[in-house]
Known about the structure:
Elements (H helix, E strand, L loop, with lengths): L6 H17 L4 H8 L3 H14 L18 H13 L13 H12 L5 H10 L16 H16 L7
Helix pairs in contact: 1-2, 1-3, 2-3, 5-6
Amino acid sequence: MSRKGSAEELERRRLRAAALIERGDLTSAEIAERVGVSLTSVKVWKRALREGGKEALAAKPHPGPRSRLSDEQKARLAAIVREGAVAAGFANDLWTTRWVREVVLREFGVEYDPDHLGRILHDLGFSPQKPQVRASQRDEEAIERWRADDWPRIKNGLVAAA
């Protein structure tokens, strides 16, 4: 059987089996059936329980490989991104992961896949966003006045000029 569930769920399953093992009135096959695991798993857990106690059945974290950027470098990267892409030497302020990749290589001498940099940026609190396209001549005050004064009149059928 394959292992299914989170590390905590797997640990609970092992500890449930340990309680049944310690009770002593069931065979390994009966324990395996009750817990929903293979007979081999129960045998491995029995040995672990005997040699290391319940601590031997605890979940073991698997953090993955260490990051190639230190915490200080990540903080500096976040500051560079906040300053904007133009300040980093790019044509506009619309960051792409390829541009971030160039900055990381230039500043820290570390090469990453652009997709992985997206995950790093997410961990640093950034999210992918598309800029809103707005006319440079846009007058926010005039738009608000129109929404407050003209639109309700138009909506209610009172189209005559004020």
